[in-house]
Amino acid sequence: MLGRTLLVLALVAVCSASSIPHTVVHPKDLPIQHRSIQGRITNGNQASEGQVPYIVGVSLNANGNWWWCGGSIIGHSWILTAAHCTAEANEAILYYGATNYNQPSLRHTVGRENFIMYPDYRGLDQDISLIRTPHVDFYSLINKIELPSLDDRYNSYDNSWAQAAGWGAIYDGSNVVEDLRVVDLRVISVAECQAYYGTETASENTICVETPNGKATCQGDSGGPLVSLDGNKLIGVTSFVSDYGCQVGGPAGFTRVTKYLEWIKEETGIYY
């Protein structure tokens, strides 16, 4: 159904501390030579029905060109995703309550007027966006994920465990459908992420995870959720990895949700 390969982010092997910081890409911009990775959460587990009721598949279109991202339900009429997913899109088809995204419980189509990107979004930094949707009722297969509370805005989450989720891409002409997958990853400090990517890429607005044994976010996971296992809060939005490949061990970068709680409150009225 999708008209083009959805390209995501990747990870590089660790080099010495004296090396130049590794470069990164957005999930939908991974170079074509990495297509053999077959976009998905790499080395994770297939999600069971209703395990991740807050995730939404987001199929985006710009003049007939399609790409795939994820998003998180944060309210009856709101989805949180990455700004690089919505920046060039004219419309989005939203897939709710799915493990196999071709079999959603519900679909909605929304136009560009419903995309609210963070006003200071600049490529890698401030990579966060809202999508306003028709009202959606919650039940076992479709439900919201809570944001961290305003009192928790300075929590670094260093060394805590979190779960990432996503479907991955469908290649041009492919009939293969990726099922929803999940993986548990450990949050690392901003300093450790900066040592790998540099301070311009891994800013204070970033939350990073380590990716041991090839476990990582990969092609098609952009915009999807990173949820704390302790407290079950949405702490990250899938944003970047290195441009060398998904399974070689470098940190994966997410937009740090706690930095945007006031903005989300102002735009949606949602806060805790």
TrEMBL record:
Pfam families: Trypsin (PF00089). One of its GO terms (biological process) is proteolysis. Gene3D superfamilies: Trypsin-like serine proteases. SMART domains: Tryp_SPc. Keywords: Disulfide bond, Hydrolase, Protease, Serine protease, Signal, Zymogen. The gene is Dana\GF16222. It comes from the Eukaryota. This is Peptidase S1 domain-containing protein. One of its GO terms (molecular function) is serine-type endopeptidase activity. Residues 41-269 form the Peptidase S1 domain. Belongs to the peptidase S1 family. Residues 1-17 form the signal peptide.
